[in-house]
Specification:
The complex is a heterodimer of chains A (249) and B (314). With 249 residues, chain A is α/β, with parallel strands linked by helices. Chain A contains six helices and 13 strands. Chain A has one domain: Rossmann fold (3-Layer(aba) Sandwich). In chain A, the strands form two sheets. Chain A has a nine-stranded mixed sheet, with helices on both faces. Chain A has a two-stranded antiparallel sheet with strand order 2-3. Chain B starts with a strand and ends with a helix. Classes of the chains: A alpha/beta (249), B alpha/beta (314). The complex binds flavin-adenine dinucleotide and adenosine monophosphate.
Chain lengths: 249, 314
């Protein structure tokens, strides 16, 4: 079966203005809206489009996270994934652990393409896809804005600092999605009902033979330095005067 | 003692300014030995440039034809091979370093810290999370080799004046053939580079069209500034994708930043937090961009920008 594996992570919704706990032990997440990582929605959308073009037969979504992440996996199923895999784990999953876990699932599922978001917008690590490709010893095409499958290879356009780079990679491979790859579809109510009946497998890290090593200790979390309150000028002349006064013109 | 290996970023002929910023970060680790590795097809010129950076102990030059394009899958095994002798491996937090360094970290079985903004010691670093809204201090055990990307907006470039020796190393590390460079489309421009410019003028969705966006270019030219854009402006096709500023675009720290017709979403603001002076021009007095602006002007950009350009010309 020609299969695509898509990695999705639950994160604090991108619209939430996050606040740091006064004791510096982390950020406040109680009662805050949680959603699929926006880049992962884009990755999933791309997988669905590839399947809809007949270039893949099955799209499997995987997440590693606590039991109540099931809700976000159901969202992925409602978007159109055929099946979901939930690796249930409470607590921190460092990118290397996430990559090891996904690799175990790859060994079982044998996908020809693995899609991830380029970065999870909570920890902003931007590591997992590259680590996975490294451990798997397969090609990586990160920050993708265009993916074309051509038999046993793919052509991927990447958004890099210098412009748009195109790579040709042999499949199977890892691709990470950037913002302009596509615009994810909206989930419709009947799809949510249908998603409830789609298969969702749960397992633990131990079931996959992975142990969650944690080597980075977060000792403190602080709000960023606040900028000094600025001034409002009434017209362009005042603006130029204010710039001159600050010595930046 | 810390031994830090920095992977140089370059275009084959010139060293990217991000490398000098990585050196500054490495120099903040007391007593560190700092080696810069140049992987290229012919790295002579780049290595010579790197050798001049103050504080660099040695420059290692690894020439291979396969290194003519910076492909992570081909560079990673070479970096990992060298890294065995180091306690830290640093690369810039540009798309080059973001692509490469995690691939290296996995080969080394080392944890990575992304976007480090300060090195408090050899084992303790600060980095932003949640689009810069929560800064964490992260620590690893002494003896843990670490890979890091350096948030270049947080560091001044290390000055020149050094004269480090350049050592040429032969490399016979086996490289995969599964990844091939096809092409690059780079928007050629005579304007200053967005990432290193001291002045940046950015336009947002409010510009309304690629044609209207020309007033941003024109103001930028008057100021000798680089041009930037919000995601909305890039998505709408007003500006090229490599001009996007923000969480998923470029993180910049110019002396002077103009946000014109940009609302100031957190994902945009995280890209400009380190700008010395932020000017916001927006017709909505309630726009969040005014919360971070040093100088705000409420009004219609289509009258303000041409007026401003005229005033600056006088
Ligand atoms: C995961 C993720 C990552 C993202 N990364 C980035 C990123 O890296 N960079 C980024 O910029 N965005 C990013 N975004 C998008 C971000 O959330 C905003 O949608 C985007 O920044 C809005 O762009 P804008 O300010 O140009 O448009 P808008 O929010 O639509 O603002 C337009 C502004 O123009 C003003 N205006 C309209 N007409 C005029 C006029 N005639 N004169 C003056 N002012 C006028 C309006 O008052 C308004 O404030 C990201 C979003 C997500 C979900
Ligand atoms: N716990 C997780 N479960 C599933 N996918 C993940 C997880 N963590 C990271 N990923 C994937 O890896 C991408 C990059 O994450 P990161 O390296 O943490 O920025 C995300 O966009 C996801 O696609």
């Amino acid at each position: 079966m020609k299969r695509i594996l898509v990695c999705v992570k639950r994160v604090v919704d991108f619209n939430v203005r996050i606040r740091v706990k006064p004791d510096g032990s982390g950020v406040i997440t109680d009662g805050i809206k949680l959603s699929l990582n926006p880049f992962d929605e884009i990755a999933l959308e791309e997988a669905l489009r590839i399947r809809e073009r007949g270039e893949a037969e099955e799209v499997v979504a995987i997440t590693i996270g606590p039991a109540d992440c099931q809700q976000q996996l159901r969202t992925a199923l409602a978007m159109g994934a055929d099946r979901a895999v939930h690796v249930v784990h409470d607590g921190v999953v460092e990118p290397l652990t996430a990559a090891r876990t996904i690799l175990k699932v790859i060994e079982k599922e044998q996908p020809f393409l693995v899609l991830l978001g380029k970065q999870a917008i909570d920890d902003d690590n931007n590591q997992t896809g590259q680590m996975l490709a490294s451990l798997w010893q397969r090609p990586q095409a990160t920050f993708a804005s265009k993916v074309e499958i051509a038999g046993t290879t793919a052509r991927v356009t990447r958004e890099i600092d210098a412009g748009l780079e195109t790579l040709e990679i042999d499949l199977p491979a890892v691709v990470t999605a950037d913002l302009r790859l596509n615009e994810p579809r909206y989930v419709k109510l009947p799809d949510i009902m249908k998603a409830k009946k789609k298969p969702l497998d749960s397992m633990s890290l131990a079931d996959l033979g992975v142990s969650a090593v944690s080597r980075v200790k977060i000792v403190k979390t602080e709000p960023p330095a606040q900028r000094q309150k600025g001034i409002i000028v009434k017209d362009t002349q005042e603006l130029v005067a204010a710039l001159r006064k600050r010595g930046v013109l | 003692m810390a031994k830090i290996l920095i992977v140089a970023e370059h275009d084959g002929t010139r060293l990217n300014a991000s490398t000098a910023k990585c050196v500054s970060c490495a120099r903040s680790v007391a007593g560190a030995q700092i080696d810069v590795a140049v992987f290229a097809a012919d790295g002579a010129a780049v290595a010579a440039e790197a050798a001049k950076l103050a504080g660099v102990t040695r420059v290692l030059r690894i020439d291979r034809p396969e290194n003519s394009h910076a492909l992570a899958a081909l560079l990673a095994p070479q970096v990992a091979h060298l890294a065995a002798a180091y306690t830290h491996v640093f690369g810039p937090s540009t798309t080059f370093g973001k692509d490469l360094m995690p691939r290296v970290a996995a080969l080394l079985d080392a944890p990575q810290l992304s976007d480090i903004m300060a090195a408090e010691s050899a084992t303790r670093f600060r980095r932003p999370t949640y689009a810069g809204n929560a800064i964490v201090t992260a620590e690893v055990d002494p003896g843990t080799r670490i890979v890091a990307t350096v948030r270049i907006a947080s560091f001044e470039a290390t000055p020149g004046g050094g004269a480090a020796p350049v050592e040429t190393l032969a490399s016979d590390v086996a490289l995969p053939s599964h990844t091939r460079f096809v092409s690059i489309v780079a928007a050629k421009s005579d304007r200053p580079d967005l990432q290193s410019a001291s002045r940046v003028v950015s336009g947002g969705r409010a510009l309304g069209s690629a044609d209207n966006f020309k007033i941003i270019y024109s103001l930028a030219d008057r100021l000798g500034a680089a041009v930037g854009a919000s995601r909305a402006a890039v998505d709408a096709g007003f500006a090229a994708s490599d001009l996007q500023v923000g969480q998923t675009g470029k993180i910049i720290a110019p002396e002077l930043y103009f946000a014109i017709g940009i609302s100031g979403a957190i994902q945009h603001l995280t890209g400009i937090k380190d700008a010395r002076t932020i000017v916001a021009i927006n017709k909505d007095a309630e726009a969040p961009v005014f919360e971070v602006a040093d100088i705000g002007l409420v009004g219609d950009l289509f009258t303000i920008v041409p007026e401003l350009e005229k005033l600056l010309g006088a």
